[in-house]
């Protein structure tokens, strides 16, 4: 099994399938990543960690988790379920590195297309996703709460040459 590493100013990004992380660590990182706190509870992260088709990529500085990306992958299709970078590390390219590493890792695992939802107001994330080959394909009305907001559904399709 491959491990993707990207060292950026002492930031290590890893994507092994069985990363050793707790639901509390993910929750704490999410709490510090989103303006309104974590969209998931500790229990939700724990359930996700116990799901065989789910996985996480992590960005660490020393031993501190400063970013993560959660995904589910099955039969060539993947979904990004949760993605956050600690507020103190935003605008440093860590989100881009996590996205690129996740696409590379999931392609190696056989992914042919990927979906995710993003808040309609989150222009920074939408821009990041577009820059990395995702396109906006749908809107889910009132998908998010705290505050109530529409979700933009985005899709990535792996281009096969030949």
Helix content: 25-40%
Q: Would you tell me the overall average pLDDT?
A: 88
Spatially, the strands of the biggest sheet line up as 1-2-3-4-5-6-8-7
Structural class: alpha+beta
Explain briefly what this protein structure is.
With 162 residues, this protein is of the alpha+beta class. It is 25% helix and 37% strand.
Describe the fold and architecture.
With 162 residues, the protein is of the alpha+beta class. Helix content is 25%, strand content 37%. The protein has an eight-stranded mixed beta sheet with strand order 1-2-3-4-5-6-8-7, sandwiched between helices. The longest helix has 15 residues, at 94-108.
What topology does this entry show?
Elements (H helix, E strand, L loop, with lengths): L6 E2 L2 E4 L8 H9 L10 H8 L4 E8 L2 E11 L2 E9 L8 H15 L4 E7 L3 H9 L3 E10 L4 E9 L5
What keyword list fits this structure?
162 residues; alpha+beta; 8 strands; 37% strand; globular
